[in-house]
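Possible regression after last week's pipeline update?

I re-ran a chain I had predicted before the update to compare outputs. Posting the input and the new output here so someone can diff against the archived version. Not blocking, just want to make sure nothing changed silently.
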Amino acid sequence: MRTELVEGALRGAHRDRGSLAGAVFHSDHGSVYASKAYAALCEQLKVTQSMGAVGTSADNSLAESFNAALKRELLQGASAFPDQATAYRAVFRWTNRYNTRRRHSAIGQ
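New output (post-update):
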């Protein structure tokens, strides 16, 4: 991954939302997130950087599990969405089911 890629994503979020002041960006210790250029951009946009301890995956495990379920249950074997709005609705429906009706092993179902 290139630093320009994550900088572009952060700039895009800033452009779409109008401001990121007060936001916290949590990441791993990847070189792009630890770079001086990315730190300067976060400071400029008033984004607080947060990083977990080196070698600890616990803070990332929930996101990894969620993303794996999304890929497995919604995206695996699917062709491309015809447009952004259709993709947004599909992910929204899946997320709503995931959060409200899907059985979760963590709560004994």
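Follow-up from reviewer: compared with the archived run. The mean pLDDT is 86. Marking as no regression found.
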